[in-house]
Amino acid sequence: MAADAGGERSVLVSNPLGVGVVRHSATSPTLPTVATVDRPRTLYADAGGLNIAYCRGGSGPIDVVVMPGFATHVELMWEAPFSGRLFDRFSRFARVTQIDKRGVGLSDRLSGPATLEQRMDDLRAVMDAEGIERAAIVGISDGSSMSALFAATYPERVSSLVLWAGGAGPQGTQQLRSVLVPWVQDAWGSGQVMSALVRVRGPADVQRLAKLERYSMTPRMAGALLDMDFTNDIRGVLPVISAPTLVVHRSGDPLCRRERAVELASQIPGARRAELPGDWHLSLVEDDEADALDLIEEFITGSQPAPRSDIDRILATVLFTDIVDSTPRAAELGDRRWGELLDAHDRVVTDEIERHRGTMVRATGDGVLARFDGPARGVRCARAIVDGAEQLDLRVRAGLHVGEFLLRGDDVAGLTVHIGARISAIAGPREVYVSSAVRDLVAGSGIAFDDRGRHVLKGVPGEWDVFAVSSS
User: Fold this and answer.
1) 8-state DSSP, 368
2) What CATH number is attached to the domain comprising 324?
């Protein structure tokens, strides 16, 4: 493990594609935004006697069918680090359908990888089951080849085609194939393979991707599917595609080289190619893909997305946590043991914020700032963090306030944030303090409070009623 400037730690993941550096903050990685739509139920379509799993949601005027990449699972896509964000974004303007190809995820398992033709059968079966006559097809990474073939084969069923992080021509050299396929089989289930395909925030995401690998397919199937991808060559069908087509790729994509994306677009009549900056294949880090998603939405709908302000006022609950007496404790334990204890603390904080549907904003010294769309979830999360830290023999305090604040990109600002910080500062070890605004909004939740009197909060006008969350 190497240290970077700015207090970051780097975890080096060796793979045949090179060495990837996964960065995360010294305390806790930022969690992805949670989708605003509820997870749709899993459905099944019959494709020649096989069950093909898919989910469908949204209520827009357009049908969008998403063919995701290598490893998929229509239910795990709603867990971190994916958190349903892609489905959520498309559902803002369309009815969205996402598919697990046969042999993968919740679809029927097979003894060998499905061919492109069989995957086309799966897509057609799902569209027939839902009565979708025409749809915008979005093929991502490994899903782009089948999507292009489907568009060429069934032009009457494709209103538009988006090929995202896909390319034409050979996937790589025979030498790379002979090294990469065995490595995928050996490393499958550890998270290393998927973290080579997508940019993540840190080790917690790698562990979640490990779960996706295990739940999506077996190591043998993963190796066989990759081996087949090396043999697929769709260049011969590209000139037949008549649907309006957008090819989106990153200029420094390490997996789909620029020349493959350029060739893909050049072979499709009238295709538009959008080359975006970035040195990743796909990313799960914050808003890395916002530019790509904006382009895709504009292309599919024919109109630009509603402008997104860099500064928005929203109502939410802010939570501050802090480790009490961290400096003398670090001196007592020494750097190595203290670092291990901080890592364990980080995992508790990250897991609890995720479990309570919160959003990590940033690290604050030996604590964190997070926000929640409901005060009760924020309070319960704070109590769980304090209790979890106690199991590690760490004393943590927390404070919450609810109100309007400024949202600046991923950060938050305004008086509400200052009040939350001040309330946290007056809490004692293992205590969770809240403002009267929080207490009033969680009435009926079953959460009990003890009155801690009125306080003057440094830098905040007036006096404030403060309450402690009962630990009983």
Assistant:
1) E
2) 3.30.70.1230
Residue where a domain terminates, one of 235, 266, 301: 301
Please indicate, yes or no, whether the overall pTM of this predicted structure exceeds 0.90.
no
- Across 429-445, average pLDDT: 86
> What is the β-pairing status of strands 463-469 and 432-435?
antiparallel
Each residue's pLDDT tens digit, 160-215 = 999 999 998 777 778 888 898 999 999 999 999 998 889 888 888 899 999 999 99
- In tens, the pLDDT along 145-158 reads 999 989 988 999 99
Residues 6+ apart with CB under 8 A from 297: 89, 90, 92, 93, 305
Closest by Cα among 383, 365, 393, 396 to 447: 383
Same domain, 268 and 320: no
Averaged pLDDT for residues 129-140? 97
Does any domain span residue 306? no
- Our count of domains for the chain comes to 2
234 and 117 in one domain?
Answer: yes
Domain limits for position 426: 311-469
**Residue-wise DSSP of 80-111:** TTTTTHHHHHHTTTEEEEEEPPTTSTTSPP-S
User: What is the rounded CA–CA span in Å between residue 321 and residue 361?
Assistant: 12
Six-digit token string for 431: 């205590």
Q: Exposure of 75 by Cβ count < 10 A (0-12 exposed, 13-18 middle, 19+ buried)? A: middle
Q: How far apart are CA 240 and CA 413, in angstroms?
A: 53
Whether residue 83 is found in the same domain as residue 218? yes
